[in-house]
Design goal:
338 residues, alpha/beta, Rossmann fold, Helicase, Ruva Protein, domain 3, Zinc Finger, Delta Prime, domain 3, five-stranded parallel β-sheet, 16 helices, 55% helix, binds adenosine-5'-triphosphate, binds magnesium ion, DNA binding, ATP binding, ATP hydrolysis activity, P-loop_NTPase
């Protein structure tokens, strides 16, 4: 396996770090401790029920299913596991032929273990194909277990949900993503600043895959992981500017706020990028009291909605800033100050 050289440039043949550092054991999967513990119990017990794992992208669903299958089947993984994901044809014919014939196949496995069919990205399977699985899951349950992974569990038909143990994965916390990034930085000898990693955590919003990918892009592209480099690579409005803009709004200083907005707008960011960053930044601003923050978030939400409806002009954002500044006039919210 290729490793990066210590002179600051990663060799071009290197594996993407998301794959290089994909955990191989459940113990190495970060976050969602309670859910992972349930999987570990299944791993020790050896009797895997039908599983349905749902959650946001890049938080370890596919990884956990593979770790579990490896732990359960060991050397027999190759024969004992059938993996189908969204890149494979998974219509009703595949369920009738491929899945059924795999379920009927005789394979020698460690005692007490079952064949496993992994249906990754199961939310993209058609309703018909899911219907066709219902009886198959029951008929072959003594030899074959199904593991579904999906982003939206509501796209999985109810009869399948009722046959499965449902596990939900939540967003990873900032500390969990940070810890993993630091481990990877140590292993790859990435030069970084603490703020740089914090910027990666901020931009990834609990998506470990995105955090690791952005880390690699920043390092290979710019040679140092600092906040400026990270925001350049991720192409997002710089939170420092947005923070200054919101700080000005809090003080009722519309001129500075508009100046900052122009600065960001002239860099070419879309209104939706700006408004999502405003929302994410305001949540982290300790200088704004809770009550004001809630009012700010309400206004930001309305503007976000209008932008999504298609009114994505700079005037829309200017209007938001003016409403935020106007709150300064509300004696109730600002009674300490006025
Ligand atoms: N909890 C985690 N612990 C450690 N690494 C993780 C974790 N989650 C994701 N990763 C990293 O991100 C990569 C992608 O994870 P994975 O394929 O499991 O995501 P997923 O939840 O299946 O996402 P999707 O819904 O897009 O399929 C992994 O290769 C791994 O490097
Ligand atoms: Mg996946």
């Amino acid at each position: 396996m290729a490793t990066s050289s210590s002179n600051g440039k990663a060799p071009s043949y290197e594996l993407p770090w998301v794959e290089k550092y994909r955990p191989l054991k459940l113990d190495d999967v970060v976050g969602n401790a309670a859910t992972i513990d349930r999987l570990k119990v299944i791993q020790e017990d050896g009797n895997c029920p039908h599983l349905l794992i749902s959650g946001l992208p890049g938080i370890g669903k596919t990884t956990s299913v593979h770790c579990l299958a490896h732990a359960l089947l060991g050397d027999a993984y190759k024969e004992g596991v059938l993996e189908l994901n969204a890149s494979d044809e998974r219509g009703i014919d595949v369920v009738r032929n491929k899945i059924k014939s795999f379920a009927q196949k005789k394979v020698s496995l460690p005692p007490g273990r079952h064949k496993i069919i992994i249906l990754d990205e199961a939310d993209s399977m058609t309703g018909g194909a899911q219907q066709a699985l219902r009886r198959t899951m029951e008929i072959y349950a003594n030899t074959t277990r199904f593991c579904f992974a999906c982003n939206q569990s509501n796209k999985i038909i109810d009869p399948i949900q009722s046959r499965c143990a449902i596990l939900r994965y939540g967003k990873l916390s900032d500390e969990e993503v940070m810890k993993r990034l630091m481990e990877i930085c140590d292993m790859e000898k990435v030069e970084h600043s603490k703020d740089g990693l914090a910027a990666l955590v901020f931009t990834s919003e609990g998506d470990m895959r995105q955090a690791i990918n952005n880390l690699q892009s920043t390092w290979t592209g710019l040679g140092f992981v600092s906040p400026d480099n990270v925001f350049k690579v991720c192409d997002q409005p710089h939170p420092v500017t947005i923070r200054a803009m919101l700080g000005a709004c809090y003080k009722g200083d519309i001129d500075t706020a508009m100046e900052k907005l122009d600065e960001v707008w002239n860099l070419g960011y879309a209104a939706v990028d700006i408004v999502t960053t405003i929302f994410r930044v305001v949540k982290t601003m300790d200088s704004i009291p809770e009550a004001v923050k809630l009012e700010f978030i309400k206004e930001i939400g309305w503007t976000h909605m209008r932008i999504l409806e298609g009114v994505s002009t700079v005037i829309q954002l200017g209007g938001l800033l003016s409403r935020l500044c106007k709150m300064h006039l509300s004696p109730k919210l600002f009674e300490v100050k006025t």
